[in-house]
Inverse folding.
């Protein structure tokens, strides 16, 4: 019955206090807006950083590694992907082209 006797302003003040609305003051929305902008900026930067990674970066200087066709051919031969006669034939073709 006491709740019904309260005035409209008393009920609004009680509601503000219960919901925590009274703590922010007049400039609380600025703090909330800046916090949300900061948070979403961090999220966007993290996503961009993840997708900008390049699997062809050398660990020493962060620059893309420039491998020549002869280096790739040598690596394939060293791994056993191509036979010796195929390796020598391709190597001669690459040397003649340069």
């Amino acid at each position: 019955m006491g709740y019904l006797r309260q005035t409209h302003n008393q009920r609004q003040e009680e509601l503000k206090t219960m919901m925590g609305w009274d703590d922010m003051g007049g400039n609380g929305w600025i703090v909330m807006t800046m916090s949300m902008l900061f948070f979403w900026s961090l999220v966007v930067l993290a996503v961009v950083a993840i997708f900008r990674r390049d699997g062809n970066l050398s660990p020493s200087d962060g620059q893309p590694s420039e491998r020549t066709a002869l280096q790739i051919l040598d690596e394939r031969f060293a791994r056993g992907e191509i036979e010796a006669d195929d390796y020598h034939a391709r190597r001669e073709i690459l040397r003649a082209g340069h």
Notes: The mean pLDDT is 79. The first helix runs from residue 2 to 5. The radius of gyration is 34 Å.
